[in-house]
Amino acid sequence: MEAHGIGGQADLPISLELAVSGAVAALVVSFTVLVVAWRRPRYDGQPVTGRLVWPPLDAFVSSVAFRVGARVVGLLLAAYTVAVAVAGQDNLTNPFFGIFYVWWWVGLVFASALLGPVWRAISPVRTLNAGIAHLAGSDPDAGLVPYPERLGYWPAALGLFAFVWLELAYEYPTELGSVRFWCAVYVGAMLVGGAVFGNRFYERADPFEVYSSLIAKLSPWARDEEERLVLRSPLANLATIPPLPGLVAVVAVLFGSTAFDSFRESTFWVKFYQGSSIDKVYLDNVALLCFVLLAGLLFSGGSALTPPGAEVSRRDLPRHYAHSIVPIILGYIVAHYLTLFIDVGTQTLARASDPFGKGWDILGTAAVEPSYWFSYHPQTLATIKVLAVVVGHVVAAVAAHDRALALLPRKDQVTGQLPLLAVMVTFTAGGLMLLFSA
C-alpha cells in the first residue's frame, strides 16, 4: 500500500519541541483543573441517561426494515469484495486492497465515531451465522455452549494483532493470495465461533466488531435502559465499556501498532535497517511486537501503581482504566491515517468502478481523483495532527480521572493518579515525536 506518512516535522508551523511542550502542558493543566473542579465521579457507576432523539428517527433506526437494510448493505459489500478478491487483477490497481486496508480498517473507525457500532449493524459474518442458524432451527444468540467469560476480549486482541502484522510486518502485505487467505481464515473462524458460542462471540472475539464498538463509545449515540435511542456525552458512553479480560491487550495492540507505523517511516528506522545485516522483515516483526508490549506494559504499570480500592484488586486495575485509552487511539488514527483515508480512499472509489480492469465505469466514479488538498496545506495538516493527539489525551485524562474517583481511596484521590498521569504524558510526548519523525 501507499506510505502512511502524512507530513513530517518540517510541516509544523511551530517547532516540534514547542508542540510537545504545549501538548504536555495542556495535559498537566487539564489534570490540575480536574483535581480542583471534578471531585466526585459523574459517569462511573451512575445511571445511564441521555436526551431522547426525535421520535421518528428512533422509530426508523429501531425498525426491522432498517436493520434488514443494514444487513443487506453489509452482504452486498462483502459479495463485491469477494468478487474483486477472486476475479480481480493481481496488482495494486485491484480495489480489493483499498477496500481491505483503507475502507475497512480506517473507514470503519471514522464511521463508528460518527454513527455508532457500524460493524455490528452490517457485519456479514453475523448475517451469515443468523441465516445458518435459521436453516438449522437453532438460536443464533445462544449457540451450542456459553462463551467463556474468562476469555473476554483476548480472541479479538489476537485477531487485531494478526491484521496489523499482515499490514505492517508481513513481507508481502499486497500479495493478493496472502490477503485472500487472511480473509478466508477470518470468515471461517467467525462462522465457527458464532455457531459454537452464539452472538456473544462476535461481541467479544470479532476483532472488527470489538474495534468498531470501542470507537463507537466516543459517538454521541446510545441506547437507554428501555432501548430508546438517545444522545449522550461520549464520556458517559466510555464509562460503559466493560472491564473484561483482554481489554488492555486490545488497546495495546491498537495504540502500539499505530505508533510503530509512524516509527517504521522515521529516518532513524530507515537508516538502521539499511545499515543492518539482519533482514528488514525480521526487524519489523520484532519492533511491532515490542511496540505493542511496551504500550501494554507502560499502561498496565501506571494503572497498577495507583492504590487499589476496596472492590478492585491491584491486578485488575489496568482493565478498569483501559477505557481511557480509546480517545487516544482515535486521536492517533485521525492524526496518522486522515490523508491516507481521503486520498487512497478516493483512489479506491475510482478503481471500484472498474473492478476487473476491463475499462468499465459501473459506479460512475472511474474519473474521480484525489485532490491532495493537505499536500498543499501542510500547516493545516500539522495543526490537525497536534490537535487530534492533544484532544485525545485530554479526553482520556478526564475519563481516567472520573474512574479514579470511583476506585481510589479518598485519601489517595489526587496523588494516586500521578502514575497514570506520567504514563499519559509519556504517550503524548512519544506519540507526537513519532508522528512528526516520519
Compact overview of the structure:
The protein is 65% helix and 2% strand. With 438 residues, it is an all-alpha fold.
What is the H/E order? HEHHHHHHHHHEEHHHHHHHHH
Poorly predicted runs: 1-11
Oligomeric grouping of the chains: single chain
Helix content: 55-70%
Strand line-up of the largest beta sheet: 1-3-2
Largest sheet: 3 strands, antiparallel
Query: Kindly, what is the distance between the CA atoms of the first and last residues, rounded to a whole number of angstroms?
Result: 16 Å
C-alpha geometry: globular
The number of helical elements comes to: 19
* Secondary-structure-derived class: mainly alpha
**Domains, number:** 1
Number of strands: 3
Strand coverage percent: under 5%
Give Rg in angstroms: 22 Å
| Overall pLDDT confidence | 91
